[in-house]
Amino acid sequence: MDNIYEALRESHELQRKLCRRLLRTAPDNPLAWSLFQELRVELAAHAAAEERFLYAQILFDDMGLKSSRHALAEHHEIDECVEDLARARHDPAQWKPLARKLSHEVHHHLREEERKFFQLSGKILSDRQKASLAPRYRQDARRMRQVVAA
């Protein structure tokens, strides 16, 4: 049965793939900027939709408050890494270390979210909520990809 966690994992896998491809691409290769833009859009759209359709639900429960706030802070750290990498577009010496840092932050966040946050939020949300949040998350993520890419 489809649920919010399956929907989120789809984006998580795409984020991992884009990070791997970005790290394997030379900074002076035009593909690097294209991959970065694709990753930037996916990260921003995913974060916005996830915050609206998972984190917001969990913030209302005392048991989920600390974890939600931590996850939101990690989204902010990833946003800062994205901004740093965008500024380093024409500086290959800075690009590679910043791309590695971004990839590290993304992988850390996804791992922690899947191993800890999903389990905690799974105790807070009912099965019906988990199922009903999935299409709402997917719809908002699609919309936000268009908004962010524009």
What descriptors fit this protein?
150 residues; mainly alpha; Four Helix Bundle (Hemerythrin (Met), subunit A); 0% strand; elongated
At CATH level 3, the topology is Four Helix Bundle (Hemerythrin (Met), subunit A)
General shape:
elongated
Q: Report on the biggest sheet.
A: none
Coarse structural class: mainly alpha
How would you summarize the topology of this molecule?
Layout: H1 4-24, H2 30-59, H3 62-87, H4 92-124, H5 127-149
Q: What is the compact description of this entry?
A:
The protein is mostly helical and 150 residues long.
Task: Give a verbal description of the structure.
The structure is a single chain. The chain is an all-alpha fold and 150 residues long. The protein has a single domain, classed as nmb1532 protein domain like (Four Helix Bundle (Hemerythrin (Met), subunit A)), CATH 1.20.120. The protein has 5 helices and no strands. The longest helix has 33 residues. The model has no long low-confidence stretch (mean pLDDT 95).
